[in-house]
Amino acid sequence: MMKHLFPVKSTRCYFKFFVSLALVQFLFSCAIDPKNVDVQLEQSKPEIKVTSYSDALDALGLMSEIYATGPLKIQSQGIGDETGTSVSTGGEIQRDITEIMKSTLNSVGGNVQFIEYDPAYIQNQMVTGYSSFTDKMIPDVVITGGITEFDRGLETRGHGTDVGAEATFTGLWSWLPSQTVSAEYNKAGKQGKARITLDFNLKNFQTLAGIKKMTTTNSMVVHKALANEEFAVSIFGPTFGRKGSIKKVQGRHNVVRLLVQASMIQLIGKYLGLPYWKLLDGAMADKVVIGRLTKRFYRMTEQEKILSSQEWLFLHGYDVNPTGKLDAQTKKALQKYNKFDPSKTSIDLDTFLRLYIDIPCNAKTLGRREKFARLHIEPSLTAHTAEPAQKYVKSQKKAAATPVKAEQRTAAAPPERAVTVTKRKTEQKNTVRGNAGIGRMLSDDEW
After folding, report:
1. Percentage of the chain surpassing pLDDT 90?
2. pLDDT attached to residue 363
3. Tens digits of per-residue pLDDT, 190-218?
4. Domains of the chain in sequence order
5. How far is CA 40 from each of CA 26, 36, 37, 316, rounded to the nearest angstrom?
6. Angle, nearest 10°, between helix axes 98-106 and 252-272?
7. Rounded CA separation 13/202 (Å)
8. Which of 39, 54, 246, 261 is deepest in the core (most CB within 10 A)?
């Protein structure tokens, strides 16, 4: 309490000022009719959903073509919430994310072909006679998984600030509601964290067995925050002020989409043996891919190592021929690329890995890939053939010109079934051959 802080004359001047201010406030408030309150809604237009991984998915398809992985036919089972919190939290996360999986896999393109899993639809089409299994594609691999963690309330923090001041004046009229003037300011907020985790695995469609090391587990922390702010002034009783509040929640559904996209880039890239981590900001090199490449290096002959290096040098922009020999042209290209010692007679592991991982991922490199295929042979074959490229082409042409007997095609099976079996065996053989180079990592059995 402050008594006789100001002289009476000065106090009356302050009083007149505050009364005038209160009168202005009163007149202003009379001009506002609460029944006319209204709110304006923002208008928005439909827009294409673009995430931070949209370009990476597209680049992954381009990378599969540049590295000549061969076709990958991939299918996904129904993917959903395995935690059960989608029901208990009122749909805070999705119960079923299969459609997100479909759009993600189908957006990769390149050598990755998505095959939908919808047995009811296929069965209905067969019943109506519109379709059959004659022209259907058979998947190579199947993706399984789901939302495995949704930990809410991992951390909640609150903060606040309160400031207030009050002054009392004496010698004023007694009919005033109050003889004090005060001001208050308040600011408070709260922040919380939660975590969402998705797991995915890859299994062989034919054997239904899981493929070793082909798994991903990715988590993402999601945030929410609440803030309130208020300012008030009281002048001899009447009080006026302003306040506001805001609440922001990071979209849980959008986070699930991001996790699906990131996981598919990892899973497909890992299976095809691609340096996919170049497409993800801040990602580390995948030890599984590097390990497989290292094993391949030590299993290859010296000629195979040189053939692969010559192929990759061509993709880097150096015009070298796949001779399988460390000739002067190849050494010169290696010197420009990595300061290669011309006295060496073999390709070392570090050069082998760098040549493979650093292949540019752009349209120009894809053009050189197509040019290499036209000038020489299919690039994925160069890494595992013991013959020079020209001899390999001649042997393939000779084999294609050799007629196949009719009795060998039927092979003691009904005509329709014989055609199907022959087709499947041919597809399988071409798939292994087409992926035997810098594409899909071969298993120990395939080696």
Report:
1. 48
2. 95
3. 999 999 999 999 999 999 899 999 999 99
4. 54-279 (3.40.50.10610), 287-434 (no CATH)
5. 27, 13, 10, 57
6. 50
7. 83
8. 261
